[in-house]
Amino acid sequence: MSKITLKNNREYTAFFEENELGGYTITVPALPGLVTEAKDMKQAKVVLQDAITCYIEGLKKSKVEIPKESFVASMRLQFAV
Question: Which tens digits make up the pLDDT trace of 17-27?
Answer without folding.
Answer: 999 989 999 99
